[in-house]
Amino acid sequence: MQPPKSPICVICGSRPATTVEHVPPRGFFKGIVGQFRTVPACNICNNGSSEDDEALRNYISAQIGKQTTGAKHLWEMGAHKSFLRSTRLRSALLRTTHEVEVVDEDGSTTTRLAFVVPVSLYQRVFERVTRGLHFLHAGKILPIDIPVQINLLTNAPDLSLPEFQIFEKHSIAEDAFVYRFALNSEEPSNGVWLFTIHGSHWVQSSTGVLVDNAF
Ligand SMILES: [Zn+2]
Question: Could you list which residues have their CB under 5 Å from ion ligand 1?
Fold first, then answer.
């Protein structure tokens, strides 16, 4: 597929495109030499995203552990190095964790570590991913006044459900990132997207008018 071109940044939809942005962020796939996708972007959107990308990459890596080779690389070549390098990042992750008391079946209480989900970080990063991929597949910039709503899924959705049969499926970076989407044929700015990161982390987004959460 020949990627569509745009003289305007497809993320902000306003400034001239002077560079390209990876969607999803390339840093999510350390050690993987598979195919990546890029979209036209301005320097401000491109430069402004790297700190968010690194923070979310580290959070996701800490969540998914080392279940797959890609996830293992992500931790060893990415997140773990960032933590070693940066005191600020370490304290940022520690700020998102806290101890919770869990009551077991026998009535005894134990303490576990829980993460506070960085919802606004997911929103910023995956809104950018959604706008970039929308441009690639719809061939048009998703207008900036069209809202993108990000939802984190705690479990893998049941992909055998009939509503998923209309979803188009693509994979990048040796299957480390799989995305599925369905765009409304009459109004393509209304769409639903489903992202799978390293086979174990699920994020859903919807664009345009709010649709019922099908998952
Ligand atoms: Zn921009």
Answer: 9, 11-12, 15, 42, 45
